[in-house]
Amino acid sequence: MLTEVYKGNLTALSPIHHGDSSDYGTTKLILSLPTVIVNPVTNEKEVDNIPTIHGNAIRGYLRRLIMDDYLTQLDYDLNSKKIYHFLFTGGLLEALDNKDKGAINLSLKKELREMIPPISLLGSAIGNQMIQGKLKVGMGNIVCSETKHYISDYDDIDFSAYNLKSIDFGTRLDDLKEYSGDEEQNHQMKYEFETLIRGTKFTHEFVLENCNSIEQACFVRMFRLWQERPYIGAKSATGYGKVELDYPSINGLSDDVYLDYLHDNQSSIIEFLDGLVKIWK
What we know:
seven-stranded antiparallel β-sheet; alpha+beta; 28% strand; 9 helices; 33% helix; globular
């Protein structure tokens, strides 16, 4: 059983907002998870909420990058909503009236892995079955005094997670009055959200399980695309979430095997995708 682990670090080059479902008053909080920490003052263990970058957020962003690139490399115009969701969002399980209608057999599962290497890496759902992905995406664990006992090579960290958090704000203008003819002055709304400051560092890892050479090269291609658009979290359109990626063990790897596979098998892959669109209308 082949397992490959790629460890690295993320460093914030601009403030990061990775939204939680919680609010503090009118302030949108950043995602934090209960964590056993070492209190930097008392040196005793306790539970606290520590900011984290969820692995699913990184995985979802990378899925969109590699799937868009996959279709671009094939020069394929996708016009099926169901196949779009299968590729880009992880798909949707369905209850089927007839157990044979639309069910995926083992032969088709194998073809899906072969013809769509990103699906083999990231997994998805279609019909009534799941396709298990071979890539595990870890959480981005913040480097701070509360968590340094989990992380090697960071014994000298002396700043708290609370020093890395800040409150930022934005404004929205009610422009509807301009078009409604109402002479009342437009209202401007201020909203606040929690961020992690520039310079915040996270440890992170990818784990590949039983990948062949094409799937491994597909992973490298996905990472290269992330290097070209190095963002995490929300509000990247306004400058937030830019990160520096430092994964030394990936630097020397090549994506040529994957790109050559798509180029050499373009016609058969397109024929396969056309068949999926016909089956899963």
